[in-house]
Specification:
By secondary structure, this protein is an alpha/beta fold. The protein has one domain: Maf protein, CATH 3.90.950. Helix content is 30%, strand content 23%. The chain has five helices and six strands. The longest helix is centred in the first third of the chain and has 18 residues. The radius of gyration is 17 Å and the shape is globular. The structure holds inosinic acid.
Length: 203
Amino acid sequence: MPQAVVIATGNPGKVNEFCAILKGSAFSFFASKEMGFSEEVEENATTFRGNAELKAKAVFDYMASEGKDGYWVIADDSGLEVEALDGRPGVFSARYAGENATGVQRYTKLLKEMEGKANRNARFVCCLCLIKPSNSPEFFEGECRGSILTEARGSGGFGYDPVFIPEGHSRSFGEMSEEEKNVLSHRGKAIKNMLAKLGDTLA
Ligand code: IMP
């Protein structure tokens, strides 16, 4: 039987990427929503690692309270760090343009703040927290370096994808297919680091 793993996120963009990257691995995946968890976890830690742990623990505790045993839980906290903005939006990437802002509103605000800036260097960061029953949380990280465009390009992916070009490439994440993005992305790399540690391989 494949190990059942719950992905602790309500972000459909993240769920799609997890499922695509983990297809063919020795796990079966469920989004936390499918398991009945619909709470917004307050992300009040100051690091990606701290917030990933908060989200994973909230879903793990929910599963235990529902008597759903034996599941592993993975949460991802991720964001965009921009050099010219001293690392902002960073851990505030999701809330950068207000609590209920859309991805377009977020990257529009970023493009405005970046007007006239010569240094466009940025990186996406992802920290995964994996909780297995009776184990301490484990953490896996991935980063993708690149730069911020002066205008949005493409409509694929989610969040800041249309304004971010990974290093060595000429198309934004928003212009790439899901498969192309997953090979390069911070999330793809963090998941691969996790699978390497777990001794699993991708199909
Ligand atoms: P959180 O991890 O749920 O706090 O959200 C992180 C936020 O960072 C997302 O809502 C996006 O705005 C942004 N973000 C994280 N990963 C990506 C990505 O792969 N592409 C584009 N934006 C991302």
